[in-house]
Write a structure and sequence with these properties.
Layout lengths: L1 H10 L13 H13 L6 E4 L1 H9 L7 H4 L16 E2 L2 E2 L2 E13 H6 L10 H15 L4 E2 L4 H9 L18 H16 L3 E2 L8 H11 L5 E5 L11 E4 L13 E8 L5 H14 L2 H11 L12 H9 L4 H9 L12 H14 L5 H21 L1
Parallel strand pairs: 5-6
Antiparallel strand pairs: 1-9, 2-3, 4-7, 4-8, 4-9
Helix pairs in contact: 7-8, 11-12, 14-15
Protein name: Multiple sugar transport system substrate-binding protein
Organism: Siminovitchia thermophila
Keywords: Sugar transport, Transport
Length: about 375
């Protein structure tokens, strides 16, 4: 990010981007809310989808449709542009695309004749994890303490967040309970999997990766954005698995640039110039090969930098393939994130406190339904 900011600043003599780094997306939202309350928003921010929805619901974001209709922007080349829509206006532009991937230790899987790609579902992965735990004495798989992953698991068991008509929260359905309680049992009862939680910022995330790279776990569910930090001589990238006979349904989500209504006009214009620079094919390809995230333009795949990296690391293509062939959009939470909050609280009860999924999800469903009902009544 700093490299691209530096390149942009050198490329023009009118605008300068001054980065302010936060620990993680929740901290970014807190900083934004404080600056908005003080009447001094930044010109530009990057937000994950749930945080974007909260900001969109607060009516503080600048509509970008007029900017995006500039011919040189070529919006038809962009991936997941529809995820920035809110109330028929475009309030966000993809900065990068993430999908949650499965990373596993090639040496450990090969040693025990486990072919990840031939595993039919998550239950077969659990059987492989059990074998690895018995033979190696290490965790067979690590489950991230991450709400998005738990939502992926539930949807990959056939569940959804709400009913088709959008009126009923369904996070207490049989499919959700099955997926989540399977994870809970594998962690707390069978002890063939584990989860790391707590710490500052993304500390728990990086500890999970460290456990895999340092022979304490055989694999983990992570982000496509981990690809820039992993040693692919040791690990391989796999696509997500479904549960039972269900197809995997991982979310492919845009992490978005947002501009703010109350920022000075000149700063808004400078921010948009940076967005255009950053999302151009060469820059988004550079971002992708350095981080592992999915580029935001179809044309990025044809750039020299992307093609050269692909020769060096064929696993770079797996997240893009998953996003295009199996990826589904995130749920658009009409409550401004309150349904997501209840799912997050339930996730902690299941993963950390070992509370049965049925109990945690039924409580979450009741609270989430009340929030949805308020919105529907309006």
């Amino acid at each position: 990010m700093n490299k691209l900011i530096e390149d942009f600043n050198k490329s023009n003599d009118k605008y300068e981007i001054v980065p302010v780094v936060q620990g993680e997306y929740g901290e970014t939202l807190q900083a934004l809310q404080a600056s908005l309350a003080a009447g001094k928003p930044p010109a530009l921010a990057i937000n994950r989808y749930p945080e974007f929805m909260k900001l969109a619901n607060s009516d503080v974001l600048l509509p970008l449709d007029e900017y995006m209709n500039e011919p040189e922007f070529n919006k038809d080349d962009m991936l997941l542009l529809d995820q920035g829509l809110y109330d028929e206006k475009t309030l966000g532009v993809p900065a990068f695309v993430a999908s949650q991937m499965m990373y596993y230790r090639k040496d450990i899987f090969e040693k025990h004749n486990i072919n990840y790609d031939e595993l039919e579902n998550f239950e077969e992965l659990a059987e492989a994890a059990k074998l690895i735990k018995e033979k190696e004495g290490i965790s067979g798989w690590s489950v991230m303490w991450y709400t998005e992953h738990m939502i992926d698991y539930a949807r990959s068991a056939g569940g959804d967040i709400v009913s088709e008509d959008g009126k009923t929260v369904t996070i207490d359905s049989e499919e959700w309970v099955y997926a989540w309680d399977s994870i809970r049992k594998w962690i707390h009862e069978d002890k063939i999997m584990d989860t790391v939680h707590g710490g500052n910022g993304w500390e728990w995330w990086y500890k999970t990766i460290d456990n895999v790279m340092n022979d304490r776990s055989a694999g983990y569910t992570g982000s496509s954005g981990d690809g820039g930090d992993l040693d692919f001589t040791k690990v391989a990238t796999g696509m997500q698995k479904g549960f039972k006979d269900s197809e995997p349904r991982p979310v492919a989500v845009s992490v978005m640039f947002n501009l703010f209504k109350d920022a000075p006009k000149e700063q808004q214009e400078g921010a948009w110039e940076f967005v255009k620079f950053y999302t151009a094919a060469e820059q988004t390809a550079y971002w992708a090969v350095e981080t592992g995230y999915i580029p935001v333009r179809d044309s990025a795949v044809e750039t020299d930098i992307y093609q050269e990296k692909l020769k060096e690391n064929p696993y770079l293509a797996v997240p893009l393939e998953q996003a295009k062939t199996k990826g589904i959009p995130p749920y658009v939470d009409p409550t401004g994130g309150k349904i997501y909050t209840e799912i997050e609280l339930a996730k902690d009860k299941v993963l950390i406190q070992n509370i049965p999924a049925k109990e945690a999800l039924e409580e979450a469903q009741k609270k989430a339904q009340k929030e949805l009902d308020k919105v529907l009544k309006k």
